[in-house]
Amino acid sequence: MITKKEKAIESFKSGMNCAQSVLLAYSDQYKFDDNLAFQISSGFGGGMGRLQKTCGAVTGAFMLIGIHNCEKNSNHSLQTDNNRSMIQEFNRRFTQTYESLECKDIIKCDLNTEEGQKYCKENNTKETICAKCISDSIEIVDSLINS
């Protein structure tokens, strides 16, 4: 059986962005529509439309945390409180490893320049950094939702 991490990395290698890859890894568990999830998360790649702000793996994880808490709790106030605490804990753990949530800081280049594109290709950042962010995001989410 394929793991969530494997499913996410396969999705990423097939051309999905980081947010899509993380979010769609959980479609079976939370029984949401793959196509709708794909569409909703489509603008979050490259740190939100290649603005290189919050990493797509992080935004995908935040979406999952929201889905999890809405499934688990019918009380809106409890959903909100749990979302906040889980997102803050996700942030703490992710930044321990990457020192930032910002795509530009994590990959250490500007995707909107020729130099940045060249750097990413030469250093294989999709494989060496982005895939690891996806995998680590899934690991953190799993630990949060299963605790």
Radius of gyration: 15 Å
What separation lies between the terminal Cα atoms? 23 Å
Helicity level, as a percent range? over 70%
Query: Which outline best applies?
Result: globular
Q: Count of DSSP helices?
A: 10
Residue share in β-strands:
under 5%
Tally of strands: 0
| Poorly predicted runs | none
Class based on secondary structure composition and strand pairing: mainly alpha
Instruction: Provide the residue-averaged pLDDT.
Output: 96
Main sheet properties: none
Order of helices and strands: HHHHHHHHHH
Tell me what the structure shows.
The protein has 147 residues and is mostly helical. Helices cover 73% and strands 0% of the residues. It has helices spanning 4-13, 18-24, 27-30, 34-40, 45-48, 56-72, 76-98, 103-107, 114-123, 125-145. Helix 7 (76-98) runs antiparallel to helix 10 (125-145). The radius of gyration is 15 Å and the shape is globular. The model has no long low-confidence stretch (mean pLDDT 96).
Features:
147 residues, mainly alpha, 0% strand
Report a brief summary of the structure.
By secondary structure, this protein is mostly helical. The protein contains ten helices and no strands.
